[in-house]
Every structure is written in structure tokens, then in C-alpha cells.
Amino acid sequence: MKKIIFSLLLLLAFSNLINGQEISDNAIGLRFGDNAGFGGEISYQKKLSNINRLEVDLGFRSRSNENDAFKLTGIYQWMWNIDQGFNWYAGFGAGVGSWTNNNINSTKNDGMFLNADGNIGIEYNFDIPLLISLDFRPEIGLLGNYSDADLDLSLSLRYQF
């Protein structure tokens, strides 16, 4: 019985090492989603350990009759392997940004904002250096009045290196 338990623990530890190697050291690309009107974001991921990574996304928009804005979001993620090439991940982080209202008839103020963010998603690592993912990111406004709450669903394409 001890040998079986030891073998299972050894197999589990070994499988985690193999699964962790599927996370690339770096990935850069685009994240396409609604994101409170920001649309697409430039996205970068950095491997921190075999099961953790940091994702940083920069979104911006410019609409002449509405508002100009930018948002920088950082998400700390945990990774779990589902099957060959498929992973799922979850994490939390924050977003900070600024917006300027271009509509002279509006009573909304310009300002800065701070959001608390969650993140959960699924991804696939192709044999080529391409990573595709679908994720859900709820955001809750903490400071500023740009957004009180937002539910962001997005598709991402990233080059891994």
C-alpha cells in the first residue's frame, strides 16, 4: 500500500512538472473583448513559476464625440492542465486608468479610476508558438466613476516566445 501511495505521489509530482512546462516564458498578442468599451487590448503574459503567470493588458480608445480613455490591467493567474495543450486558469488583479469626456453637453466628470478584477478562462497551446484563449473577467469599480461593474468576455491570440 505504501508503494502504491508513493508511486501515485511521484506520478502526480512528475505530471505537474510536465504540465508546468506548457506555460511559455513570454507571450504577447491581442485580447479582443468588450471591456467597458475599450475593445481590443495589447496583452503580455510572463511566466512566474510552473503554475503561475502574470498577465498585463493595455486598452485604449478614442472617440471624438464621447471620451478618450486608457486602462492598464494586471492579473496574477494560476494554471491547471486539462489535457494535451488545453489549460484552464483563474486569477485576480486590478486595473487603473484615466478617461476624458469629449462631450461638452455631458455632466460626467473626467478622472482616474481603479478596478478590482477577477479572471477565469480556458486556453489551447498549439504546436506552433500560438496560444488562443477565451476568458471571463468581472471588474468592479473601486475608485472613480468610470465604471461601477463590468462583465468582460474576450478571445485572445498570443505569440509565445
Attribute tags:
1 helix, mainly beta, 12% helix, elongated, 161 residues, Porin, eight-stranded antiparallel beta barrel
Structural features, described:
The chain has 161 residues and is mainly β. The chain has a single domain (2-160), classed as Beta Barrel (Porin), CATH 2.40.160. Helix content is 12%, strand content 62%. It contains one helix and eight strands; from the N terminus they run H-E-E-E-E-E-E-E-E. Strands 1-2-3-4-5-6-7-8 form an eight-stranded antiparallel beta barrel. Strand 3 (52-62) and strand 4 (67-83) form a beta hairpin. The longest helix has 19 residues, at 2-20. It starts with a helix and ends with a strand. Residues 14-21 have low confidence and may be disordered.
Sheet having the most strands: 8 strands, antiparallel, barrel
- CATH fold descriptor: Porin
Indicate the overall shape: elongated
The helix content is: 10-25%
Nearest-angstrom radius of gyration?
A: 19 Å
Q: How many domains would you count in the coordinates?
A: 1
What is the mean pLDDT?
Answer: 82
What is the CATH first-level class name? Mainly Beta
Q: Which runs of at least 5 residues are low in confidence (pLDDT < 50)? A: 14-21
- First CA to last CA: what distance? 43 Å
Strand content: over 45%
Structural class: mainly beta
